[in-house]
UniProtKB/TrEMBL annotation:
<dbReference type="Pfam" id="PF04228">
    <property type="entry name" value="Zn_peptidase"/>
</dbReference>
<dbReference type="GO" id="GO:0016020">
    <property type="term" value="C:membrane"/>
</dbReference>
<dbReference type="InterPro" id="IPR007343">
    <property type="entry name" value="Uncharacterised_pept_Zn_put"/>
</dbReference>
<feature type="transmembrane region" description="Helical">
    <location>
        <begin position="20"/>
        <end position="41"/>
    </location>
</feature>
<keyword id="KW-0812">Transmembrane</keyword>
<keyword id="KW-0472">Membrane</keyword>
<protein>
    <recommendedName>
        <fullName>Neutral zinc metallopeptidase</fullName>
    </recommendedName>
</protein>
<keyword id="KW-1133">Transmembrane helix</keyword>
Length: 294
């Protein structure tokens, strides 16, 4: 990906080096462990589940953070942090334009960089959950070590720096913010609370695929504005999309997949929607059928 000279976003909260010392809420530690287990089993950008399930319940809890750890960050960490700020700035530019074009205002989300664990308006998050978006505070939460493990996992097949695949991760979470601003996220959560588990999972898949689609739309316009994509970038992101498909992750973890438990979509679906967004950038396309959320 070509990012030379691109601006960095200021909508960043750098909480790296801070850790939560007292975890309260969702039945304390037990609850947090349960969430981590559920999210680990479900795969994908796992922290999304925290948003889906505990979005509203988690406010007003008491947590304490330790003093900021004074340790200096490595060159690699700083590189990843600066990269994330550039990608976020790109999403700000693209989505501001798109919202304006459709008579709406794009309110910038904040990117919180953290290490290990983090407090959010949706409850406590941990690096084990993967990156996630919390609509209650409109912030994206990212532990940069996620990228290092991603590189390890995808490294065998992917070429180059994997940077577009990293960008896709950020753009997907921003995609949830776009869903939130367009009123889709809360409508979907309301619907999910009214139906049984299997149908709630189906709705969750659509929400995730739409975030993949919006990530593709972002790449479409970012490339149009800044010629940011280089050879191999698209394949890299599609490879990444395929490797976070529910079927892929479940088969890898247990040797078989259970489609009724899918919450993020199959490899083929994730790659399909990302590509569709990348090719069209169409604001009106959605993964939901016309009256599904009414
Ligand atoms: Zn997601």
């Amino acid at each position: 990906m070509r990012l030379t000279g691109r601006r960095e976003s200021n909508n960043i909260e750098d909480r790296r080096g801070k850790s939560i010392t007292n975890i309260a809420g969702i039945g304390g530690i037990g609850g947090v462990i349960i969430i981590v287990l559920i999210t680990l089993l479900s795969g994908g950008d796992m922290g999304d589940i925290v948003n889906n399930v505990f979005q509203q319940e988690m406010q007003g809890q008491v947590e304490k953070s330790s003093e900021r750890n004074q340790k200096a960050f490595t060159e690699e960490e700083n590189k990843l942090a600066n990269f994330s700020k550039q990608i976020l700035a790109g999403t700000e530019d693209v989505w501001s334009e798109q919202f304006q074009k459709h008579g709406m205002h794009y309110k910038y989300p904040t990117l919180v960089l953290y290490t290990g664990s983090v407090e959010t308006s949706c409850g406590n998050g941990s690096a084990a959950m993967g990156p996630f978006y919390c609509s209650a505070d409109q912030k994206l939460y990212l532990d940069l070590s996620f990228f290092t493990s991603m590189r390890r996992e995808l490294g065998i097949q992917a070429k180059g720096d994997l940077d577009f695949a990293y960008a896709y991760v950020i753009a997907h979470e921003v995609g949830h913010h776009v869903e939130y601003l367009r009123g889709i996220l809360s409508k979907c959560h309301t619907k999910m609370a009214q139906v049984d588990k299997i149908n709630a999972n189906k709705l969750s898949v659509k929400l995730e695929l739409l975030a993949d689609y919006y990530a593709g739309c972002w790449a479409h316009y970012d490339n149009e504005k800044y010629q940011s994509l280089s050879d191999g970038d698209i394949e890299e992101a599609i490879d990444r999309a395929e490797k976070i498909g529910d079927n892929y992750l479940q088969e890898k973890a247990r040797g078989y997949a259970q489609p009724e438990t899918f919450t993020h979509g199959t490899s083929a679906q994730r790659a399909y929607w990302f590509k569709k967004g990348l090719e069209t950038g169409d604001w009106n396309t959605t993964t939901f059928s016309s009256d599904e959320l009414d």
